[in-house]
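Q: What would this chain look like folded?
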Amino acid sequence: MVDATLVVNAGSVGLPFDGDTRASYAQLTWQSGWQAAVARVEYDRDQTKRDYLETGFMRDSGRSRR
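A: My prediction, written as structure tokens:
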């Protein structure tokens, strides 16, 4: 809580700052006020990398090549 406001950071898929490489999302529920939990789920990171390359996403996304 920040003052009277619930603040939730759901995290990131692929670029975690906390080292946990699972995908994350926020689950919000209302029970006389907002409650939040961050859920983590496993996913196939190697397949995701292949999909980015094979679909042309990395080539067509305009991503800088430094």
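The chain has a mean pLDDT of 85.
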